[in-house]
Amino acid sequence: MGALVTGVAGCLLAAFVALAVHVHLAGSRLDSIEDPPRALTLIVERTMDLDDALTRAAMWERRFYELTVTDGRNELDEAIAWYEELSDAIPGDPGVQVRLAVLYGEAGRIDEVLDTVERWRARGDSARADVLAAAYLDAPLDGALGRLRETAARMLEPGWFRDRLLLRLADRAGDSTAREAIVTSARARTAPLLRRVRALTAAELIVLGLGLAGLVIIFRGRPVRVDSALVPPPWRLGEGLVVLVRGGGGGVLVLVAVYFVGRWRGPNDPLLATLSMPLMYAPLLWLARRRLFAPAGVGLARGLGWVPAPGGWRALAWTIALLVGMGTATDLALGFLSEATHMSAHWTEWFDEDLAWGGPLIAGASLLGTVVFAPVFEEIVFRGMLYATLRRRLAWPIAATLSAAIFAIAHGYGAAGFGSVFLSGLLWAIAYERTGSLLPNMAAHILNNVAAALGVLLLLRG
């Protein structure tokens, strides 16, 4: 009977993974976004605004931002590639076509601008074609500057794209007054972004300093043991894998139930969104407590090292500081690597519509899932159970590498995102081994996700 239950759970889990892989490979990455044109416009406009604002900042600030936020990539080229992808996915969308044409013009890709103008004229859209030709192809103005400005204002909402068109027209007409008004308005719009990114930069520098302090303290021989989690565990490898498979299958059933409840209650239900993640992990936690930890005579809290031993609080603080600092240092290193290899994460991998423009309840539910539930449950599953189970038979470097790879694959990111998640998983597995507690990992994971959520909230929302 036990083998049958495990087999059914394994089939459910395999079917869920196969479906996720099929959707990921067969569909476009844009399918994960409900309103891709609106989302990409928001990202590109805020990114370009911030680039303009950083021209007023010190060189080191710009460089730090490039490495930690943009991975050292060329913003304009990246925006063009993303808009070309969006244009292929939604052909004929006028807003997408206009913005892509502006990006081509700003990049000096005149052949593409000319091709766009000719296509617009061929289909009778001469008004927009005239604006683009006047702005980027040096077409004669013939006293039509006022009409062109009015058309440009109707084509695009206030923001970076409209400003670029109006600036080009002002330059063509030699209208310094209009140029100054546009630049002044843009500076007023971008000033809050510059303040926010400076606050983020200051926080990351503080984190780096704390990480260095933690490294110095640990190198001076201070103990790092926080508690005595079951690593390697007393349960057999096979028993641990059975619990993981059955718990995963149970989680799939919970997700199916949540899906049908969501169809009944309606989309974007904040309560359901908040409860879905803990409910999904509930079968696995119940099985782990009953079949793995209880036979060893401990509960989940003691078995996972959630209760620091006497004197373990200082080690906990030093280890958290070290892990968070190393996470920021890793981001910097990956920024240099991305810059050298021209490889970066796709915008859909980190964009969260609920955080960007969702209502307070929806954004709050998303935050709770991102910065609390996901770090806590992922650390329990991938370090407290998967890594620990692998340690029953494997040396810690192999178990850490294998569990980190599975952790990264489960996130479904591209190469750049995979590298970042893999290194984090590797670091947290080593920390679990050395400290005997999941608490440092959970704290570092939470702070890592808080930083990512703040990046979306401060740079994209409002």
List the helices and strands and how they pair.
Elements: H1 2-26, H2 36-54, H3 59-68, H4 75-89, H5 94-106, H6 110-122, H7 126-136, H8 145-155, H9 160-173, H10 176-219, H11 237-265, H12 270-293, H13 300-303, H14 312-341, H15 353-357, H16 360-390, H17 396-411, H18 415-435, H19 439-460
Helix pairs in contact: 1-11, 2-4, 2-10, 3-14, 4-5, 5-6, 5-7, 6-7, 7-8, 7-9, 8-9, 9-10, 10-14, 10-19, 11-12, 11-16, 12-16, 14-18, 14-19, 16-17, 16-18, 16-19, 17-18
What oligomeric assembly is this protein in?
A: single chain
Approximate strand percentage? under 5%
Number of helices: 19
The residue ranges in which pLDDT falls below 50 over 5 or more consecutive positions are none
Task: Estimate nothing, just give the exact number of structural domains.
Answer: 2
Radius of gyration over all CA atoms, rounded:
26 Å
Termini separation:
56 Å
Order of helices and strands: HHHHHHHHHHHHHHHHHHH
Name the structural class.
mainly alpha
**In total, how many beta strands?**
0
Which shape, going by the Cα principal axes? elongated
Instruction: State the helicity in percent bands.
Output: over 70%
Q: What characterizes the major β-sheet? A: none
- What does the average pLDDT come to? 87
